[in-house]
């Protein structure tokens, strides 16, 4: 083909367009330098539009025109376009996603220094100028610019060549002895990704719980026929129900230990969730499902492309994966394994807020459709859980008296007083054991509490009398423990009650050292007296068996969730001023850090906030809790207490730089702003919904739209992110600008939609918030609500005029981000284009195949999505993407929808079908499925199956 013919020139420009689009797509996955990546992406996207305009002009140009002759110089061999294309091809090869050790090497290839990045940006900018001149028809300026360009691009080629030489040297080092370093790097990267999936890791809980079991107990379970059937795989789901204190958690740890000892290998996986009333805030549906994914992925030698893809997709945007994405990735991880055991303890303690329990059970039930999954759930026999577990094999957890006997026999020798009383008196020894077993009524917890009460008696006679009066009801047993606490010395009573207050009323579980420091805080003190710190043995002793220490996880806890339930019910009697007392302690502790020495150390270094916080908590272990939660304790009553108000104004005094970290910590931690080093006091008041304090600060002259120094947050952003209506209304009434932007160009509306606060969204829209305002990545509130899975907010935004086809930075609409079928349906009803095409954006179906979202894939196919829509830069269809993920379900859906089985995807110099890709990735079950379908198509050619499905959908449309 003549390169200077209109057709040849247009084809050359098309190749450059495709390579540029490929670069833009790959740059999403580059690990380092997000700011530089974003710069190159933006410039490349801008250039892409000019290239497309140029191609259109060339296709309709007269080859004899002077303009056309100049364009030939621009695009000819060795010209600026040709040289630019060569550089972009080299860059594309560096960024092409691969797997295994090569993946590590590819990551190391992203080693451009600032000079190389500047050269890349300059090259793109000059080419944009040249094309603009060409499009304007300025022949003279273009002629001069072309002469200068030839020399400048050659300079850039030299820089890039040196970069590529450096790359070759890096790879050579890897091959000549740096494999261990590469492995260490890969391990660190894997741990980083795994922790990103979920903060929940139940390994330490497993160690703590299993250590509490008594040797020889729980063996009865392995003799039960239904359990043996579950273990053998004859049944895939088992619900073990039992009354409170029956030992369900200990029994779960015994099963986990058995599985890890007998089934552990790379082709199997054991995942465990220990649900707890104490951790409901952290144990969200996303974190729990993410933890299952983390545990399954951790057992593999290397992380899969699916998990890495999830990480790369979200980290540049600072977003988190949706429940659907996590669930689908979990399915993908499990697919290649032989046996997967999932154990969930205490389902009844799972939060029902924000549909946490419902979402978790939904995911677990979907996993049961996989032939290699076995699920075991324990809970109390409560109707709210039972309703979700109907159809599962059921086993009652009621420990044999023999198990309780073993527990007591092993425990008595550890109690010094009891050993003195039973020594030489076997009959008395037997009497203690038999009486406790009778009173325990099948509850290990009751046996534990009764034994603890007897161990405190001063003589043998008191033990005999106590045996006669042992309570038979749990509440009576707890009331008896509180009486024993109240009968101690005054100092012991005070320590015990403060301990129980902190453990039962804290916003999260406390570590041992955190509790010790909280208990050592004295009213009016200017610093913590280390001699006031109580020993852990003393703390446990004065609480009469109601608290226990988990050494592995370094936490102190109540002995059982029923203890928490009891203390909540008697809270008004035992801890009437708990929130005020706890707020006072938190603020007092934070003010310990105001000394001149600490001010110099932590107030001046604004660049290493995370390191400063780590150093601070090493010296002041309770600081993190105090900083993050003082406002939560103050929210109801404490904010009106004059003592508290005095301390709050000391904390919020902006001149005290040492307290800057304490002021910013709640927002830094909970909103993920790691480099936030200080915020105005009103931001904290708004974040904690301390409306009274916000009003006072405004009356004292605080600017209503004051911004935090390095994230540009306003108090309105803080109130909106928490869904605090009263504070939000006050700020707006006092003149807050409703569409103020933070550092990422997000408005209060976008933040409220992202967090799912419907009432807040309603108020902001009512007050005139711009429904289509875009953030840094051009996302709107509609994008945020759709990706978060909030259909009510999506509907509300659409009613208020949200642009259903507005594109974000990646040229994706809310439809690309939608997390559930009902949201998709809402968007489609409002005119969302299911087949929207853009040179950069992923087709909707390909995106769903990439995410592994099979239900959404099926849904959109019914709505008329183009089954053969192609990615512009490599021609891949959804079938190629599904095959590359080994997603057999999605492949079958696409085959049934009439996908083109012979469509080719470009990969370097190869043209690959979906079958080729499945084989290349060693997904032989998918390969066989595709090959079988190809044979069937040869015998029974299909007609437009997708069209017939569309007609079927239209005939069943809700509008009909």
TrEMBL record:
**Signal peptide extent:** none
Task: Tell me which SUPFAM superfamilies the record gives.
Answer: Ankyrin repeat (SSF48403), P-loop containing nucleoside triphosphate hydrolases (SSF52540)
| UniProt source species | Cladonia borealis
The protein's matches in SMART domains, at most eight in alphabetical order, are given as:
ANK (SM00248)
- What is the official name of this protein in its record? NACHT domain-containing protein
User: Does the keyword Flavoprotein feature in the UniProt annotation?
Assistant: no
- InterPro entries reported in the protein's UniProt record: Ankyrin_rpt, Ankyrin_rpt-contain_sf, GPIID_WHD, NACHT_NTPase, NPHP3-like_N, P-loop_NTPase
- Domain NACHT spans what residues? 236-381
Start and stop residues of the ANK repeats? 711-743, 744-776, 777-809, 810-839, 874-906
Alphabetically ordered keywords of this record:
ANK repeat, Repeat
Key word Kinase present: no
**Origin: domain of life:** Eukaryota
